[in-house]
Design brief:
The protein is about 55% helix and about 10% strand. It is mainly alpha-helical. A two-stranded antiparallel sheet has the order 1-2.
């Protein structure tokens, strides 16, 4: 009986120590939400803002995406075809004025000698006009294409700038000597280490 009494006393002491009467009972009515340790800084408007800025001023969207080295490329991609257009437009106007003078019967255009003999024939002036006009139109087309491409580039960079690229993800080509077949085998290896 004394052993039994000892065990009851020991058990009641352990239970009494483990329970603290000052602690309130657990409240199961409140909902606990775990906090995510990784911050989500995704800006859904970033790609559209970059595209808009790049549409307003070429290169501004690239600057918004912190791709400053692309700003001169975007400006040159739009500016050089515009410059080529102005050069071809001036050349076309010179050729057209000379051709009009020739059609009117004059010989004092800039493509004729002082004595009135033509340096370039009428057919040559007409071909040169067509070439200059074609170059003007091509410059406009190239300007429009490069303008759209730099807008698309700003938009894509706006999307991709928000994704983190882990250094553990690698794409490495390798060359393996195949002992069964004489020769080399080429391939690639995609590995992700944790």
């Amino acid at each position: 009986m004394s052993n039994r009494f000892f065990y009851i006393l020991l058990f009641s002491g352990i239970v009494g120590i483990s329970q603290n009467p000052t602690d309130p009972s657990p409240n199961f009515d409140t909902l606990l939400v775990a906090q995510d340790t990784i911050g989500n800084n995704y800006d859904a408007n970033r790609p559209s803002k970059a595209a808009f800025y790049s549409a307003v001023i070429p290169g501004l969207g690239q600057a918004y995406n912190n791709q400053y080295w692309k700003v001169p490329l975007a400006l040159a991609a739009v500016g050089l075809p515009i410059y080529a257009y102005t050069i071809n437009d001036k050349e076309y106007n010179r050729l057209r004025d000379a051709f009009r003078i020739r059609l009117a019967g004059g010989t004092n255009d800039e493509f004729s000698n002082e004595d009135g003999t033509p340096i370039i024939s009428n057919e040559g002036l007409e071909r040169a006009q067509r070439t200059s006009q074609r170059n003007k139109e091509l410059s406009i087309l190239i300007t429009a294409a490069l303008y759209v491409i730099q807008i698309i580039d700003a938009n894509v960079d706006g999307h991709l700038s928000q994704f983190s690229v882990d250094r553990n993800l690698s794409f490495l080509p390798y060359m393996d000597y195949n002992t069964l077949a004489i020769g080399n085998s080429y391939g690639f290896n995609l590995s992700y280490t944790f």
